Amino acid sequence: MTGPNKITNNQDLETMSHHTNHDAPEFTRRFVNLADERLGAEAIFATDDFFADKQRMLQTADAIFYPDKYDDNGKWMDGWESRRKRVEGHDYCVVRLATSGRIYGVDIDTSHFTGNFPPAASLEACYCPDGDPAEDTTWIEIVAPIGLRAGVGAEAHHYADVTAEGVFTHVRLHIYPDGGIARLRVYGRPDRDWSKMASSADQVDLAAMINGGVVLTWSDAHYGNPNAILAPGRGINMGDGWETRRRREPGNEWLIVELGHPGEIEKIIVDTCHFKGNYPDRVSIQAAYVDGEKDKSLRARSMFWQTILPEQKMQADHIHEFDASVIAKLGPVSHLRVNSIPDGGISRLRILGKPAKR
Is-annotated flag, keyword Transmembrane (predicted)? Predict the structure, then answer.
């Protein structure tokens, strides 16, 4: 990437994700977006999506706006948009979450919907582990009707805490009476039977998004979204990863990962896919078992965590695998500090091991 703020295509816009907004509620950093289509979430029904397909609402990248883009039905919008309702009632959309989980907060985002946003919205959830909801499914309201604003800047994000207990597999977004929603993000903790995983002989990716791994905080993310390093698959381009600015002072860049579950690490994979002239020279990882600490405390304390992976030389566009011969045996850990020395881009991080028994 050249120039300080160059954005060349839709995928590069992922680097501008609101995940890097530390003014957003803590649940946007502490938990996984269970409605992320990259993880497998799917919009399975909408009463109407005449102007903009319902699945667009679940895209990972922030919504974008093309002033001169139209299709056969009218103005092309990046999100879900129903037609203007001329009868009683309201529109809604049902989303199958990527995995079942406990929900802690949501973001109903109206970005770029300025004259066509719904005045209000609410959210329900249900638990259907064996399939999709039916007519007799019981839905629980998890976000009461809230007023929505025009989709301009930070005002487009409508955050709401969720206090409903229990595990859910689907959500139903109601908009009153019609209009457009750019993105729906449902932040929660994936429901995993860690006791079974702990007793299995197979290694588990303790840091994977789908297993609840999240990036809590970082030193810099000028070009890339830090949470992308925990996403499934390999990076699709240089915009699909964590990339820092060029560091012009002593030290190095870093980020802190909270594992989906504490565990003993047996293998570490650092992938610099697509990073060819901007990969880190070296990478090291520190680790600790942390219970109940907050983000601000973690930033300071992480400098003194024990080293689990000493500095390792990186290569361009390469999968680096490290096994027990170089990984320190520290017992169960819950958090990692990944050091990018001195700076650069990492596409994916895999932390394989055995979940700790509780």
Answer: no
Q: Compute how many other C-beta atoms are within 10 angstroms of the C-beta atom of residue 87.
A: 5
Which residue's structure tokens are 């499914």? 137
Locate 287 and state its tokens: 């680790």
**What would the two tokens of residue 155 be?**
């005002």
Q: Where are the alpha helices (DSSP H) in 200-345?
A: 295-301
Cα-only R_g, the chain = 21
272 close to 345: Cβ distance less than 8 angstroms: yes
Q: What is the pLDDT along the chain (358 residues), one digit of tens a residue?
A: 333 333 333 333 333 333 446 689 999 989 999 999 999 999 999 999 999 999 999 999 999 999 999 999 999 999 999 999 999 999 999 999 999 999 999 999 999 999 999 999 999 999 999 999 999 999 999 999 999 999 999 999 999 999 999 999 999 999 999 999 999 999 999 999 999 888 888 999 999 999 999 999 999 999 988 999 999 999 999 999 999 999 999 999 999 999 999 999 999 999 999 999 999 999 999 999 998 776 678 999 999 999 999 999 999 999 999 999 999 999 999 999 999 999 999 999 999 999 998 7
Distance CA 155, CA 144 (A): 19
How many whole angstroms separate alpha carbon 217 and alpha carbon 283? 17
With H, G, I as helix, E, B as strand and everything else as coil, classify residue 63.
Answer: coil
The Cα 263–Cα 357 span in angstroms is 8
DSSP letters spanning 220-236: --SSS-GGGGGSSS--S
Q: Which amino acid is at 238?
A: M
CA distance 252 to 236: 26
The answer to whether 260 and 207 have CB atoms below 8 angstroms apart is: yes
| Contact (Cβ atoms closer than 8 angstroms) between residue 82 and residue 179 | yes
Structure tokens at 19: 């995940």
What are 31's two structure tokens? 């938990």
Domains of the chain, each with CATH number or no CATH: 31-190 (2.60.120.260), 194-355 (2.60.120.260)
